[in-house]
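User: Run a structure prediction on this.
Assistant: Running it now.
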Amino acid sequence: MAHPQTASAELVALLAPLIEEDGYTATPLPGVSLMALHRAHGPTPLIYDPSLIIVAQGHKVGYLGAREIHYGPGHYLVQTLPLPFECLTLASAEAPLLGVSVRLEPALLSEMVAAMGDAVAAQAMEDPVPMASVAMTSGMHGAVLRLLQALHEPGAASAMGEARVRDVVFEALKGEQGPALCALVQHQGHYARIVQVLSRLQAHYAEEISVEEMARQANMSPSTFHQHFKQIVHASPLQYVKRLRLIKAQQLLVQEACNVNQAAAAVGYRSVSQFSRDYKRYFGASPLQHRREERALQAS
């Protein structure tokens, strides 16, 4: 691979013309989003879908339990589970954060793991790490470069976009976190059972659910389920559900999709006052205050 600074500069040169505003910018390719931020931010709670996050400029620090996870130029983040964590973004108007996110689709992962066969089967991992920073290889850099180049040409994006996404996922499967990606689709052991529960919670977070019900879904006793869940997720099952609901509510409020009462109801809260208390405890500001602060930042 070229010198790390040169390699990052290549990605920045391709990303910058594609991004017009801060936040996430959708692309013509499903599951591929561009990221930008022209100011430092956080630490703030957030949640990523299972994805690969490649930061070409700027720097992010994720805090998950006692772990501190750095990702920026020269590294990429492999996020295999939708875990709430705190994220600090280091960026400025002169050197904004620029990056690309590639969502990990279970169907594509399953197909590629099966196709790679013994090449990934030998990588079995006893306890996969659900969130980790991985050093950028020349293969991954090349795959991301080709993906971004395709986004500059509508014809290339249409004809070759899916192949370019497969390139990026293929390189991730070959990398240090390949075993954690394989564990998502191999349906073996307690890790896979927790993955199934998390997938259901992501889709039905507003519904009432008990730890006993989650344990039944995982085919574990409540105590065993609680132990494995906390070990993998760095939160108890009920803490996870609460954090997930609050982050989903924050997204609704910041996007101005609904008011506080509507946001509380949309994520499964029956009491607006309880929602406001939990929200302030988690984010450090009331829902309305948080929305005003975000609006002010976006306007500045």
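Residues 189-299 form a domain with the Arc Repressor Mutant, subunit A fold (CATH 1.10.10.60).
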